[in-house]
């Protein structure tokens, strides 16, 4: 009888723990689903419209790099302005991992963002394929290294252009700039356009693993695909760590600096 009572009590404890776990997961999903969904939709639109700007006009490839680079930059401006206040509009696993390093996201939410971005990118490029003829859509936005460059040069290019992207992203996140965020979408969008123009002739200027992942899946083209994961993650993570520990000031330090500056101004006026 005592054994049966003990088993019943153990089973009840397990059920209670399971119920609490489900309740926590449900509460977490209820709290964050809008952000995760926004990341999926914004990445979907990035691939759909961004890659649409890379479709040749009547097979004329003239200025295709410029069109694609400026097109992606403008789509990024649109997405940040539309979804930035909801999820941050990362649209890039590297940015989400950097946000986790900064403490802006929990590890769980950063992982959910990355999954949503992968799904959104695949769906977005799939929509582009559905809206275009097979002949036009084939190979559009597929990143592969320029054969004239060594793989180390291609990897280095992805590292440095992604590092540059994360520098401005970290600058936007910096609390000292919290009063100067009205044009953040334009700053980041134009930066992406410029970096794309610079890196496109060498690597295709990915800076974003899912931006390369979705076209690779739909076109079954995996040439040197690892570069478009390793390069951006190495460049992005190193830059986030460098900015955080070398230049980022704590909020109390910022306020202290503002007080000192204000005191100096008052003394100067006197």
Order of helices and strands: HHHHHHHHHH
| Count of helix runs | 10
Distance between the termini: 89 Å
The helix fraction, in percent, is over 70%
Q: State the total count of DSSP E strands.
A: 0
Rounded average pLDDT: 86
The coarse overall form would be globular
Helical/strand content category = mainly alpha
Poorly predicted ranges: 258-264
What portion of the residues fall into strands of 2 or more residues?
Answer: under 5%
Largest pleated sheet = none
What's the alpha carbon Rg, rounded to whole Å? Answer: 23 Å
InterPro entries: Aquaporin-like, Aquaporin_transptr, MIP
Family: Belongs to the MIP/aquaporin (TC 1.A.8) family.
Keywords: Membrane, Transmembrane, Transmembrane helix, Transport
Transmembrane segments: 36-57, 64-80, 110-131, 151-173, 185-206, 226-246
């Amino acid at each position: 009888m005592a054994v049966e009572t003990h088993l019943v009590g153990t089973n009840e404890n397990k059920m209670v723990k399971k119920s609490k776990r489900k309740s926590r997961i449900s509460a977490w999903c209820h709290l964050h689903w809008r952000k995760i969904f926004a990341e999926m939709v914004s990445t979907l639109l990035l691939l759909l419209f961004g890659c649409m700007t890379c479709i040749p006009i009547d097979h004329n490839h003239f200025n295709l790099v410029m069109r694609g680079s400026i097109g992606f930059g403008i789509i990024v401006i649109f997405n940040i302005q539309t979804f930035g206040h909801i999820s941050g509009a990362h649209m890039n696993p590297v940015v989400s991992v950097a946000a986790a390093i900064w403490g802006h996201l929990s590890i769980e939410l950063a992982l959910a963002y990355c999954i949503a971005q992968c799904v959104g990118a695949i769906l977005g490029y799939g929509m582009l394929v559905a809206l275009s003829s097979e002949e036009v859509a084939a190979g559009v936005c597929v990143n592969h290294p320029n054969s004239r460059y060594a793989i180390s040069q291609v990897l280095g290019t992805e590292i440095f252009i992604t590092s540059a992207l994360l520098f401005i992203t970290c600058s936007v996140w910096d609390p000292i700039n919290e009063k100067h965020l009205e044009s953040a979408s334009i700053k980041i969008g134009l930066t992406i356009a410029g970096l794309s123009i610079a890196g496109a002739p060498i690597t295709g200027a990915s800076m974003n693993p899912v931006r390369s992942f979705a076209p690779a899946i739909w076109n079954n083209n995996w040439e040197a695909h690892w570069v478009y994961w390793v390069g951006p993650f190495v460049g992005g993570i190193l830059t986030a760590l460098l900015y955080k520990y070398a230049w980022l000031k704590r909020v109390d330090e910022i306020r202290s600096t503002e007080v000192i500056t204000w005191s100096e101004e008052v003394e100067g006026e006197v």
